[in-house]
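User: Second chain of the day. Same drill as before.
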Amino acid sequence: MILLSGLGFAFEPEDALSPAERRWLAAFEPPSKSAAAGTPILTFELQSHRGLGAAPDPAMPASLGWEGGRVVLRHAAFESSIDPQAGRAWVRRDPETALALITTLRTALSARLPLEGGLVFHAAGLERGGKGLVCFGPSGIGKSTLAARSPWPVLSDELVAVLPRRGGEAHRISGTAFRRPPQGSLASFTPEPPLAALVELAQGPEFRLERLEPRAAVRRILGSITVPPGPPLWAAALAVVGDLVAAVPCYRMAWSLDGDPFAPLAAGLEI
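Assistant: Same format as last time:
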């Protein structure tokens, strides 16, 4: 079993994992405090099939649909079906590549987390003084640039998970397995920091930080979360977003690519 963003993932039969898949899974970090007893587990049933199509192209996206209560992925190199409510997935793939496993695991995480009270954001995740920031916004707004310039540890420059809350604890965040390694000074790095703020990124001539009222925050957050199609999944995601904006301050940060936003951001958020 592996552990990712508060969820456990098991594979059946385990000996069906190929060397390529095992190499990729071996890159996961050791279990953390999110791996408590009773952690929800999703089980992947692995099926080998070498005749689905041409050699897999990682740049080619899989089609994504919702059929009969399942998330369905179809690609030239694999087919997957995920039942997020039952906690099971079926993967029919060429085992010589990890592409099918990576894509299905990423989609299963996005599908199941809302049902557990979590979310996956297209965002940069930063850690500052033991507190976490989720910096989100549309494609091209500067998430990767912000992460690349950050003097603080970077949890992810692409996908950030808001972890399920357990026992009324504060929201925490983590990077996912689909990211570059954390960067910045790791001397006091907190792998799953409590979420201090959600920050929508915007470009402007100078730094400006303004607090968003909850309704505006909800509208803007909805464009940056990754949830597969499926009414139960989006209903759960909406509830999580509502909980988030009620518990965590949300801001809009305008900044110039020619400037350094980190000192004024830290001052404005008091972190």
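Residues 79 and 179 are 24 Å apart (CA to CA).

User: Great, on to the next one.
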